[in-house]
Amino acid sequence: MHLEKATACVPPGLPELLRELGAGESGFGGTSFGRGDATLEDFLQSCRDGEDPAKIAPEFVPQTIFWIIDDRGQAVGMIRMRHHLNQRLLQCGGHVGYYVRRAQRGKGYAKSALRLAVEELKKLGVTRVLVTVSPMNVASMHVALANGGILDGQGKSPDSAEIVNRYWIESSI
Q1: Distance CA 52, CA 130 (A)
Q2: What is the CATH class of 2-170?
Q3: What's the rounded Cα separation, in Å, for the pair 2 and 14?
Q4: Between the N and C ends of the chain, which has fewer C-beta atoms within 10 Å?
């Protein structure tokens, strides 16, 4: 398994992955393609544009999108890796969000992908990585804990008032 940065190249299984995600699940927001609001090409361009501070709205932070690719070369999930936090992400959202297709869950993809995302953030100078998880999402809590996550209370989404657990991971792990 490896992470592959979003580019114009479409790995096998990506359209199906994005359609399955749709509008989002368990606190992981959907995509414009998955909701049917954009073509795949436009969505992929927006992924690349999200890394450039000049191409994003002031209330957002730069982020890199990675596909989680299995050993057969299939896209089985995705990671959103935010380069730094603003006040909103500090409460709910964190540095890293991950999604794995339902049929691929329980195989260690999220755990490995989060570990690799922490390594990528370390390259950007991030020494403490925040992951926020719904208290109802037990599997995702285990992923954060398996990567050295230390529970640091709860945060609250300013939009939905959703409560999330906040886990900090030291990037030296």
Answers
A1: 21
A2: alpha beta
A3: 15
A4: C
